[in-house]
Every structure is written in structure tokens, then in C-alpha cells.
Write a structure and sequence with these properties.
The structure holds two protein chains of two kinds. Chain A contains twelve helices and two strands, in the order ααββαααααααααα. By secondary structure, chain A is mainly α. A two-stranded antiparallel sheet of chain A has the order 1-2. In chain A, strand 1 and strand 2 form a beta hairpin. Chain B has a six-stranded mixed beta sheet with strand order 6-7-8-3-9-10, sandwiched between helices. Chain B has a four-stranded antiparallel beta sheet with strand order 2-1-4-5, with helices on one face. By secondary structure, chain B is of the alpha/beta class. In chain B, strand 9 and strand 10 form a beta hairpin. The interface between A and B is medium-sized, with 21 and 26 residues.
Chain lengths: 283, 251
């Protein structure tokens, strides 16, 4: 009896130590990554970098065009994907009668969310770039991102629509509300926090995306306004990081971009959490 | 005595499950009809069929007729929103929307196109008075309806149903989630409401059926076993199964 309890105690302690080690290693890795990138990259962030474009004539190294391109492509992709994704999610959860077909579509979107983004890049290049003749352009890249993010938006919207209690729907329909009035006045207001969170996370994916954009939006680093950018090669920050780290072998700039990307990601996640919470509290 | 609502050879299937079997029942105007029977006997299903709330459930098949004011409600010409405006429903669990008390009551009238502030104010007050809750909430109409107690929420739901001025009020075990005091308030309310409305309730509670209803319908395994005046059903039931149920031998 005593022997057993000693054995158990040892076992328990050993296991606890092991789990502690796992936690410690994970934290250490994350902290190392953040500290390393900030330590090496922070110094590279200069006013010139943030406010100019890279030019041999003026002898400047700048990523302003890439920052702008990132914003443009977020705008373009979200303007298209939001109505499309939310609309189809509403259709699938609230209107569609054929539950079997819906299950198949849900499974397909689920699978699509996990596909490597380079595949979207490849298809986008062939489809938008060549067949549609958009070549390297913000439009081509934006549309590729739309295809890539659509499943995520549909899924997250559907999930948050499903959290709205059925009794709200019954209440509205029982008062003689039509389907759309019910969705607009009772379902959507109660699902909005989830939809917003999904969108912000989608924006996060856009910011971090490089593989899907290399051969669609291109790598251009010329200062353009939104409409010029639509039809010209426009590299985002992540693509620029790839360029500076690889082709130009300029790790200093690459690390500076990395810092900027990490800060943006942090802000996006924070915004997602706060907005989600804020919208929930409002009810 | 005119039946404002009646069913003729009503059959309903959930997939292969034959949940209502050839039900013929008349619900007369300005009376309270209570549907009683053990769990799973089909009484709630029957109630939901009366304002076509079963339409929402996939795999439902219905045969026969439900006649509301001489119209078969399954007739393709009948607009389901029209039907639900005239045949209102109060659900088992209070389900106010997460909005203000005022907006909850105004939801139905707004749905049917009433926008004027004055008119809405009047409807809200009248409905809340009708549901005997005006005095309790008149000072906090802008507060969330979810801040009220369960019994108050249920009366808000009744007021919300009254606001569209229905003919018939269906109540699906509307007091089963409430405490005894709230229950008795709602029972008093039912007695009051039947002057202006026709009421059909589903209840598990035999005492409640005897207290509030004029007529009773006893369901068992999807069949309507017996229906008639409540007094008769509870004193001299014609069917042995009814007698067994109301004397508490099963259910």
C-alpha cells in the first residue's frame, strides 16, 4: 500500500515536471522570437524607410508603397469578400432547405480553409492573371485573396449565426415577421460580434500572406494611388519581407519589416478581442 | 357556439414518425381550450401546427386541414405571416428579444408597418396593460427586457403577442418554467384575456387545466382520445384512457 503511494507520488511529480518543461520551452521560444526580431529589427525602422520608396536614383530604401499596398489589398479584398461571405453564410444557415447539400458545402468550405495558400496563388495566377489578363496587379492579388478568405468568412459567420438562440427566431416568426426581417432585426444583431471577429482575423491573414500574392499581386514597390495600384504590380509588406530577405539579401530591412508586421498583427488581434467583447456587452 | 379554429383529419409525420393521427378538434371563440396528455403525446406538435410553426422543422409532412375563419391555413393562397399575425404564439420558455421592453412590444406592430411614434406608444401601453405588467415596467420601458424576472419576461412575451392584435392566442406550456406566483398571475390573465381572444393552451398541469380552461382535449400517442367541456372531462370522462390519465395512473 505504502509502496504504491510512493510510486504514485513519484509518477505524479515526474509528470508535473514534464508538463512544466513543455510550458517553459514554449514560452521561451515565443519570447526568444519576439525579443530577437525586435532587438535586431527595431533599429532598422527609420523615417526614410517608412516614408519613401526604394529608389536607386534617389538612393533611398523605403517601404511606404508596400505599406499602402497592404492597406489597399485589405480594402479591396474585404469590400468583395464581406458581402459575399456573410451573404452566403446567411443563405446556408437561415434559408437553405436541403440540409444534405448544406452539409456538403460546409464540409467543402471547412476543407478549403486548410489548403496551403500557395495553391490559391497558383490558381490565381493562372486564372486571374492569365485567363482574365490581369497579370501582376492588385486586382489579381485581391481577387485571389477573396477566394482564399471566403471559406473562413463563411465558416466564422455561420458559426456565429448558429449561436443565436432558436427561440429568438421562433419569437420573430411567431409575430408574423418574414424571413429577412427576422434575420435583419433579430439574428444579425446577435451574431455581429462573431462576424466582426472573423473579419479581423481574415484581415490578419491578408497581412501575413505572401505565397498567394507572389505571383498574383506581384512584388512591385512603386508609389501608386489605389486606382493605379489596381492594375499594376503591387507588393505587400509580407512580400517585401520575402524580397528583402531573399533577393536583396538585406536582412536589416527584412527584420524592420518583420517588426512592423508583428506590431500590426498584435494590433489586429487586440482589436478583434476588444471589438468582440464590446459588441457583446452592448446587448 | 362557433369554432373559430378547427382541424379536420389532421395528420402529421416527422420523417417516419406518425406524430398526429387523424385529429378533429374544434376550438370555439372566446373560450380557453386546454390540450392535455403525457409527454410526447403530440399536444405541442398540434399547437404548433395551428400557426404553422412546424414549417421550420425539416422532414415534416402534414395532411388534412386546419381551418381558421373558414380558410384552410395550408392553402397556398394563405400567407403565413398573415396567419401568424392573427394566430399568436407564446412559447414555453420566455423568449423576449435582447432589446428594450418597448422595442420588444413594438416589434410586431413595426413588422406590420406601423411606424408612428404616437401610435406605437399607445399600442405598447395597451399591450402591457393587457398583459397585466404595465405598472411594473412603465418607468423602465427603455431597459433591456432581459433584466426582468422569468415571470415578468413571460408577461412581456404575452404583451408582445397581443401587440399585433391577434384573434387567437396559442400558449405552449407558458407557465411551466415559472414560479407559482407568476403562474397564478398568468392564469388570472388568461381568464381575463378570453373576453377578447380565443385561447388554446398546452399544459402538463391538471389543476391548471381545470382552473383556466372551458374545454379540454386529451391526446395520447398522437391521437385525440377525447374532447369536451372541461367539467365533463374531469368528472365523467367517456374514455377509460382519459380517466386513467386524469386520475394520475400514468403520465
Amino acid at each position: 500500500m505504502e509502496h504504491l503511494s510512493v510510486k504514485r507520488k513519484l509518477y505524479d511529480r515526474g509528470l508535473r515536471a514534464l508538463l512544466y518543461l513543455c510550458g517553459a520551452i514554449t514560452c521561451a521560444l515565443l519570447i526568444f522570437l519576439i525579443v530577437y526580431v525586435f532587438y535586431r529589427g527595431l533599429g532598422g525602422i527609420t523615417w526614410e524607410l517608412l516614408s519613401t520608396q526604394t529608389s536607386y536614383i534617389n538612393d533611398t530604401t523605403g517601404i511606404l508603397p508596400n505599406i499602402l499596398n497592404t492597406l489597399y489589398i485589405i480594402l479591396l479584398a474585404m469590400v468583395i469578400v464581406l458581402p459575399l461571405g456573410v451573404g452566403s453564410a446567411i443563405y446556408l444557415t437561415e434559408y437553405a432547405k436541403n440540409r444534405k447539400l448544406v452539409a456538403v458545402i460546409e464540409y467543402a468550405t471547412e476543407t478549403l480553409t486548410g489548403i496551403p495558400s500557395i495553391i490559391f496563388g497558383l490558381v490565381g495566377m493562372l486564372f486571374f492573371g492569365q485567363i482574365f489578363g490581369l497579370q501582376y496587379s492588385l486586382l489579381s492579388g485581391g481577387l485571389t485573396l477573396v477566394v482564399m478568405i471566403l471559406p473562413t468568412i463563411v465558416r466564422t459567420t455561420q458559426e456565429s449565426l448558429k449561436t443565436v438562440p432558436q427561440s429568438y427566431r421562433e419569437g420573430a416568426l411567431g409575430l408574423g415577421a418574414g424571413q429577412w426581417r427576422m434575420v435583419r432585426t433579430v439574428v444579425l444583431p446577435n451574431a455581429i460580434d462573431g462576424i466582426v471577429t472573423g473579419c479581423i482575423l481574415a484581415i490578419g491573414r491578408i497581412v501575413g500572406e505572401s505565397a498567394a500574392l507572389l505571383f498574383t499581386a506581384g512584388m512591385g514597390g512603386v508609389l501608386n494611388n489605389f486606382f493605379e495600384a489596381l492594375t499594376s504590380s503591387s507588393g505587400t509588406l509580407s512580400v517585401a519581407l520575402y524580397l528583402y530577405a531573399g533577393e536583396y539579401a538585406d536582412t536589416k530591412v527584412a527584420l524592420a519589416i518583420a517588426v512592423i508586421l508583428m506590431i500590426i498583427t498584435f494590433i489586429i488581434n487586440l482589436a478583434a478581442t476588444l471589438l468582440g467583447k464590446g459588441l457583446k456587452k452592448k446587448q | 357556439m362557433d369554432a373559430i379554429l378547427k382541424t379536420e383529419h389532421l395528420n402529421l409525420w416527422y420523417g417516419d414518425n406518425h406524430a398526429l393521427k387523424d385529429v378533429n378538434l374544434e376550438m370555439p371563440e372566446h373560450q380557453v381550450t386546454a390540450l392535455i396528455g403525457p409527454s410526447g403525446c403530440g399536444k405541442s406538435t398540434f399547437l404548433k401546427t395551428l400557426d404553422r410553426m412546424n414549417d421550420l422543422i425539416p422532414g415534416v409532412r402534414i395532411e388534412g386541414q386546419v381551418i381558421y375563419r373558414d380558410r384552410n391555413i395550408f392553402d397556398p393562397q394563405v400567407d403565413v405571416t398573415w396567419l401568424r399575425r392573427h394566430v399568436g404564439m407564446v412559447f414555453q420558455k420566455p423568449n423576449p428579444f435582447p432589446m428594450s421592453i418597448y422595442d420588444n412590444i413594438a416589434y410586431g406592430p413595426r413588422t406590420h408597418g406601423i411606424r408612428g411614434k404616437k401610435e406605437l406608444d399607445q399600442i405598447v401601453e395597451k399591450s402591457l396593460r393587457g398583459a397585466a405588467i404595465w405598472d411594473e415596467v412603465k418607468d423602465r420601458l427603455k431597459k433591456s427586457a432581459l433584466s426582468l424576472s422569468g415571470g415578468q419576461q413571460q408577461r412581456i412575451c404575452i404583451a408582445r403577442a397581443l401587440a399585433v392584435e391577434p384573434d387567437v392566442l396559442l400558449m405552449d406550456e407558458a407557465t411551466s418554467a415559472l414560479d407559482p406566483i407568476s403562474t397564478s398571475k398568468i392564469e388570472d390573465l388568461i381568464a381575463d384575456l378570453k373576453k377578447s381572444y380565443t385561447i388554446v393552451i398546452v399544459t402538463h398541469n391538471m389543476q391548471q387545466a381545470t382552473r383556466v380552461s372551458d374545454r379540454c382535449a386529451f391526446f395520447l400517442h398522437g391521437e385525440l382520445v377525447e374532447s369536451g367541456e372541461t367539467e365533463q372531462i374531469f368528472s365523467v370522462p367517456k374514455d377509460k384512457r382519459t380517466e386513467d390519465y386524469i386520475t394520475g395512473r400514468f403520465g
